[in-house]
User: Fold this.
Amino acid sequence: MTEPAPSRVRAERQGRKGEAAAAMYLRAKGWRVLAERVRNPAGEIDLIARRGTMVIFVEVKWRARAQELDLAIDARRLARVCAAAEAEAHKYLRDGDDMRIDVLLLAPGRLPRHLANAGQF
Assistant:
């Protein structure tokens, strides 16, 4: 088995730090993080959180420069998160709950930008 490229290892490490920061941000906003890094054949969900009867499936994007955040998420990535969320929703939803896809964009020295209801099922 070959070792991943050093740049890939750095990106993975930074992605995990971004997800941890996003989880702290959500907790500060009153969300309870239910799961992190949930993978299934349809894709991956970075965070799943609940506040009241709303369950959110969150894609987290971290970039070294804030200017890069506008291009960090695209329709293909959102579609994969939506598909993964549909496959996992039954594990996290209760009767009467609502769900949505959110995106959290993070960059050093900036407050997180929370895009609520960014994807469609």
